[in-house]
Structure prediction request, 139 residues.
Amino acid sequence: MREGAAADQAVAESARRTSSRRELARHEHFDRVSPEVGQLDEEAFQRLMDADPDAALALLADLTRATDPRLRELARRLAGRIIVDVSRRGQARHRGVGKILTQPFRPDGGDLDLDASLDALAEAKASRGAPDTEQLRVR
Prediction:
């Protein structure tokens, strides 16, 4: 099988995969939004959307792949309306471009800045040891 065909097949398989109620229940608010099989409580969804839009949209995205065909269809219809509603709320605010800062290495502190850490990495390679974390930089 050629490489492109394998990728196409993987995408098609992913599109066919559905999520059971058990899988959907990993969302904290799933039981409120879909209290029963085949049901979607739009008012509960709207309350979640008002309180936590990211969680609401993540849940809705997963609901559109529900194993339950009725729930899946309701979620897809709601998703179409939600996207249109969000797009009609006015112009997006221009936020500009942020400035990337280089900082000393912290285990939880961003991506390794290879350019700024190159000397430490080369030195570690030459000595066949681990790099000195005090010389590493993150962005």
User: Anything to note?
Assistant: The beta strands are 103-104, 137-138. The chain is about 55% helix and 5% strand. The radius of gyration is 23 Å.
